[in-house]
Structures are given as structure tokens and as C-alpha cells.
Protein: Ig-like domain-containing protein
Amino acid sequence: MFNSWRTSVIVIVVLSVIAGILIAVFAHKNRGKILVFFSVKPSISVVDMRVEWHRLDQKYLLVHLFDDHEDRNTEQIQSYRGRTKLNHQELQRGNASLKLSSVRVSDEGLYKCFIQSKSWNDDTTVNVKVEAVGRPPVITVDGFDHSGGLHLQCESEGWYPEPDLEWLDSAGVSLSSETTEKHRNTEGFNVKHTITLHHSDKIHCRVKLRHHMLEALIITTSNMFISWRTPIILISVFIVLSMIAGILIAVFVHKNKGNILLLYAFYVCGHWSS
Ligand SMILES: *[C@@H]1O[C@H](CO)[C@@H](O)[C@H](O)[C@H]1NC(C)=O
Structure:
């Protein structure tokens, strides 16, 4: 009895520790820069012209304006503030490529560049695709089911476009997720998958997007699968003992009802008479 008590306490402590550990194999966050290309042909200087970059899919809002030999960005969309750059030297070679820094998921879309002088104009439309590698996945131990299976949950945030999440056992065999969830916010996609494990193993949770891959690992030991019974046995024993005690008390009270009353009457009488 004492041994099982100790085991169950240790199991609970071990589980809480595991639940708190975040296991990351490697992390990579894409905070990159992109170039939205546009060079006029033939490569004449556009430095004396008006160069406008707009979001074609967002009400033609202004992303960058170069006019009268200067960047004029007072009308620029708020979300592009301080993140756009036109290389003025390159403008002399007909290169009006726009450099975008601290790229966000919301930068994906259609851009239109319009270059104009009094006598000449040219334009182009560029479809910009953004890819974001999210944060390393985190595996959480989320308790047991009624048959003693261990619930595992793997979560990863900040991917774009939607990544693939896969569970693998130590032999590299793919395990199918029980539940899958995905949420989209301004930062990209968050994914969460669960599985239930019935025996100890080394489990990988892999999140993949094209050639990017992030992984987390959890090692479960056989102790986790045997010792789940201990608390249940303890509770059952407690319930059975309480029931037996209850029955014994009831029987005792029932059997001695007369005696107890008599004893009481005797005591009252004795008290009275003294
Ligand atoms: C255009 O200018 C950018 C810098 O703004 C440069 O990185 C790019 O290579 C240039 N493109 C061409 C075709 O020269």
C-alpha cells in the first residue's frame, strides 16, 4: 500500500515535469526581406520620372511613391511604414525594384508598379508570395484516457501557408492524428494535432512546409503505462473500505438500537434518582 502510494506521487511529478518541458530540435524564424522586381526595358533611367508602387488587390493603396527625385510616402499605407526602399542608384539603370523588409504574411498579394514621365510610361503587375516558417512544435502530455492510453498534443504556430503536421514513431512509421485543429490569424497558421499512445515509444512531431521542417521529440517510458492503475486501485480500495465500514456501522447501530436506548434510559433514571 505504501509502495503504490509513493509510485503514484512520483508518476504525477514526472508527468508535470514532462508537460512543462518544451522540446525543440531547431528553430528558424523568417524575418526576411524580399525584392519585388521591376526593371524597364530598354534600361533607360527613370530617375526623373514618377515611380508608384500600389497594392492592386487592396483598393490600389499606395505602397511607395518616388516623385520629383524623392521618396514621398506621406500617403503610404500604415502597414508599410518604414519597410519599403527604392534604390535611387538603380533607378538610373531603369531598375525600379522595391525592397520590402520585415516581411509579413499580409504582404502577400498583387503589386502594381507604374512609371511615368510626360512622354513615356510603363507598368507591371507582380504576384508576391510569402512563406513563413513558424515556431518549433511543442509536445504536451495531456493526461490519460479511461483505458490507460497517454494523450499527446503537438502544437506549432506562425506558419504560412498551412504546414503539414505528422506524428512518427521510433521506426519512422506515420501515426494518424486523432484530432486536428488549425487557426489562421495575421501571423499565419497555428496547427494542433493529438494522438493517444498505448505503449512506450519515442515519438516525433514533425511540422513541414516545402523544404522547411521543424521537429519535437518525446520519449515515454513503460512506467507511464503501468502506473496509471495505481491511483485508480487506491480510489477503488478506499471506496470499498468505506462501504464496508458503512455497512458495519449500520448493522451495529441496528443491532444495538434497543441496548443503546435502554442504556440511555438507565442513565437518565439513574441521574434523576440521585
Ligand atoms: C535592381 O535593384 C536591386 C536593388 O534595389 C538589386 O538587388 C537587383 O539585383 C537589381 N536588378 C537588376 C536586374 O539589376
In short: Helices lie at 2-20, 88-91, 223-226, 229-255, 257-273.
